[in-house]
Amino acid sequence: MKKIYTMILALGVSGSAVAGGMNDDPFLFMLKMDKLEFRDTDNGTNLIWDAQAWAGKDLNKLWIKSEGEQTEDGTEEGNVEVLYSRAIAPFWDLQAGWRHDFRPEPSRDWFAFGAKGLAPYLFEVDATAYVGESGRLAAALSVEYEYLFTQKLILSPELEMNLYSKDDEEVGVGSGLSDMELGLRLRYEIVREFAPYIGVVWWGKYGNTADYAKAEGGDTSDVEFVAGFRLWF
After folding, report:
1. Are 127 and 113 in contact (CB under 8 A)?
2. Cβ pair 64, 56 in contact under 8 A
3. 46 domain-assigned
4. Could you give the maximum distance between any two Cα atoms of the chain, in Å?
5. What's the number of domains the chain is made of?
6. Is 2 within the bounds of a domain?
7. For residue 119, which of 123, 126, 136, 202 is within the disulfide window of CB 3.0 to 4.6 Å?
């Protein structure tokens, strides 16, 4: 993440200079497909996406995020977030806005507030709290690290978890720690903007979320092999 921010800032400044004058606060944008991968599951091959885009200047940006899962029967999970982002420190932003869960149905809407940036030792952290209808509260945490074997071969462990304050049986979510995912992906950057990868993911559901999944005949944990690519421009 730090490398990407630095490169984009450099490109933006050089582009301004070519245009005829230095701009200390250029308008920049980025579109990043962090994950577009196929997972080998017990019920077939699922497609996972995790995409982000932002546009703005050094301190203030508009972010759009989306992630979800497509199965052979259609979209099983999916959401989109629209956030205002304000830089508060080098490589740290506060973000606030709206999240819409369009799958599973019925849809849910949330007010979102969180922080995104680089923690000590270059851990990339994305932590968000959510306030929904009927007094629902939720929180999501994502932590990722990049270990460089070479400048092109990169190993990336990742942790994701979701927590909820109330049971929501209609969408299969229980209170407390709802689910957790641990992933390990090895990617090769053919160019910085494009990198295929392979990996393995373990996920588990807990509490009433696991009970709801069992009642529907679903799994509560699994280990899945993945293959996909990462790109940004």
Report:
1. no
2. no
3. yes
4. 65
5. 1
6. no
7. 123
Q: How far apart are CA 48 and CA 155, in angstroms?
A: 19
State the Cα–Cα distance between residues 93 and 88, nearest whole angstrom. 6
pLDDT band for position 110 (50/70/90)? very high
What is the domain-level CATH number for residue 191?
A: 2.40.160.40
Domain span at residue 157? 29-232
Q: Please state the pTM of the whole predicted model.
A: 0.87
Give me the count of residues in the chain.
Answer: 233
Amino acid residing at 54: W
Residue 9 lies in a domain: no
Q: Give the residue carrying structure tokens 């979320």.
A: 209
Q: Is residue 99 part of a domain?
A: yes
Residue 176 in tokens: 């407390």
Q: For 148-205, what is each residue's pLDDT tens digit?
A: 999 999 999 999 999 999 999 999 999 999 999 999 999 999 998 999 999 999 999 9
Amino acid at 204: G
158 alpha carbon, distance to own chain's centre: 11
Tokens of 214: 């069992």
